[in-house]
Structures are given as C-alpha cells and as structure tokens.
Hints:
Elements: E1 4-7, H1 15-26, H2 35-44, E2 53-59, E3 62-70, E4 83-89, H3 98-114, E5 118-123, H4 127-131, E6 136-143, E7 146-154
Antiparallel strand pairs: 1-2, 2-3, 3-4, 5-7, 6-7
Amino acid sequence: MMIQINLLADHPEFIDTLAPWVWQHWRALLDQDTLEDRVARFRKHLNRDTLPIAWVAHDGGQVMGTAALRVCDLPGREDLTPWLSGVYVAPQFRQQGIGQALSQALAREAHSRFGTSQLYLFTLDRQAWYAGFGWESIESCHWCGHAGDIMVKQLPAPALQADPAVQRPQPPLKGDGPARLR
C-alpha cells in the first residue's frame, strides 16, 4: 500500500465517499445533520491557501481518511487558532498509522503554509492517542453535551530566526461559519 496525503481540492471526487462515512460516524451527536449538509461542509474545505482546508489520505483511487485545518473548531474558543479538526479514518483502514500520518502532515502544513507555532484540537475520547505523538491536554471542554479536552501541539521553531522588527503578514483566513466538518 502506498499512502499519499493530498489536498482535498486535488481530489474532490473523494467527497462522495467521505461524506457518508463522516456523516454516519457523527450522526448520533449531530442528529440534525443531513448527508447533504456533510457534502456542503466538505465543499467549503476545497481551499488551497485559506482556512478551512482539508487533506485526504488515499492509495490511488481509494480514499482512506481525511483531516482539516480550521480557524476555530470549538465554539467559545475562538481565541485559539488554528485547529486540527475532522480527523477521520474509515474503519477498514484503522490501526495502520493513517490517522497519525494525517495529523502529523497537517501539523507540518500549518507550520509551513501559515507560519503557526502551535496547533489546537479538541477530542472527546482520543486524548491518549494524540498524546502519543506530542499533543498535550491544556483544559477540559464540552461539545454537544459531551466532555472532552482541548489539546495543543507545539510546532518546531523555524531554522532561521526572522528579524523581530519586521512584521510577517498574516495568511488570509476564511471563517468556518456555523458549518463544521467533523
């Protein structure tokens, strides 16, 4: 198996497979969600240089999973940005390192594309899994009536220090609005 991680914008055909998977996975918590809502959320992530932006893990024509970077993923915590979000691997592809590969690839992308030094996420039940590759819990949270944790990952400092007198322009960010890819 040769796993590749590419922008969803390069493989929009995968939305037809991903949307039902993700919709079914989160259906119990997001009971107002429809499959059409999920497809629309994925389409909002077909960006290349603005957030929200999604990636897919695939082997040629077979999609295996997805993850996204967003401005904010947890209502009430807009002060923390950007967020790793929507990490999902189809059950038949789990336990093969795909979720970790997606998470690590997106951390590198957040750093290289947007210059961020830390990345946030929240999880209801995968704290130990994320901690296994460098994420730290920073506080408890609630989402859809369920307890979870906000986690942070410190990203590597750039090899060359920029002149502090020169302000770096901020990347263009597009808000997520009420729709969330989960």
